[in-house]
Amino acid sequence: MNADSDPTTMVNFRTDIRPLMNRGPYSPSGAGCSTCHYPTGTQKLGITQSGLDLSTLGKLRQGGKTTSDYIIDTDEPCGSGLVMKLMGTDPLAPTRMPKLAAPWKPSEIQLVIDWMIEGANGSDDE
Q1: CA distance 21 to 5
Q2: Count of beta carbons in the 10 Å neighbourhood of residue 66
Q3: In whole angstroms, how large is the CA radius of gyration of the chain?
Q4: Cβ atoms of 23 and 37 closer than 8 Å
Q5: 46-83: per-residue pLDDT in tens?
Q6: Residue 7 and which of 1, 13, 48, 62 are 20 to 30 A apart at CA?
C-alpha cells in the first residue's frame, strides 16, 4: 500500500472499482472499460481482439487470450494483467489501457491494487 491507501477501509469491488470501469469514453473523470470491454460497448474491440470481457467480475476473473493465467494476482498485484494494462507495463501486450483515453489516476490504480491485496473479493455477478 502507498500513501494514498486507507488501511482502515476495505475496497469494495461493486462500489469502488466497478464505477471506474463503467465510465464512458468521454467521462469528465476519465475513461473506463465499458466502450471496448463490455458486450454492450460501442466498440467491443477489447472483447473481439483480446477476449477480455470486463462486464462482470466473473468474466474479469477469466481474463483474456493472453491474461487468463494472471489477470488478478492477489500475491503480486503489480504483476497482474489488470494492473499492468492500466499502467502500460504488461510485457506481452504493453499498450496502456484505456487505449484511446487519458490514463487512470495513480490513486485509482492503487485502489485496484489494494482490492487485490485484500483478496480480490466480490461476487461473480458484480
Answers
A1: 19
A2: 15
A3: 13
A4: no
A5: 999 999 999 999 999 999 999 999 999 999 999 999 99
A6: 62
